[in-house]
Description:
Layout: E1 5-11, E2 17-23, H1 36-43, E3 56-60, H2 69-72, H3 79-92, E4 101-106, E5 112-115, E6 119-125, E7 133-137, H4 148-155, E8 160-161, E9 174-179, E10 183-191
Parallel strand pairs: 3-4, 3-10, 7-8
Antiparallel strand pairs: 1-2, 4-5, 6-7, 6-9, 9-10
Amino acid sequence: EKACYKMRVLISSSGRMRVEAHPLTRIPVSNYAPSTSQYFINTILSGFLPTSVPTWNVFVDTKPISVSPFTTFKTTYRDHYNNARNRLAEMAASYGNSNQNEILVYNDAFQLMEGSITNVAIIKRKDDDLNKMRFVTPALASGCLCGTMRYYLLKKSLIDEHPLDVRDLKEGDIVILFNGVMGCVKGIIRKSLK
């Protein structure tokens, strides 16, 4: 049987390499076989579809993290994210046994950076047409990860880059979470900084 995978490559400082394969969601075989583009939209970009519902619980961290090369680049040195995820476990306990929980981290200037395992985009109304929405991701200057999915979404003009103040986020706000393995999903902020 033919299967499709997303690949993750990890390289150590000594040059050792490990490759992980993550299976892509399969669409059941039916009379309708979507095109490759439609499959990509329905799975990887599904968080942008107006019909998609928030499936992730999102919490804003209670402590800032310091910006460093270990926040900007993907490494396995991630104590700052692990500590945030420990705080997440406490906050998410009242929302059941869901494993779809994310915590948003911010820097010392209260600039939103990202999630502990995802990049993030905030849904905002366009200034010139309040009936239309735009998706804003934190600027790289915040210290966020320069992720591959983030890069792709910026290049395709699906998201804009702009500094975001974490104190402006409110409980009930809908956000888009994304990374190269899980694609794009919607989340709802359950606990804000205030």
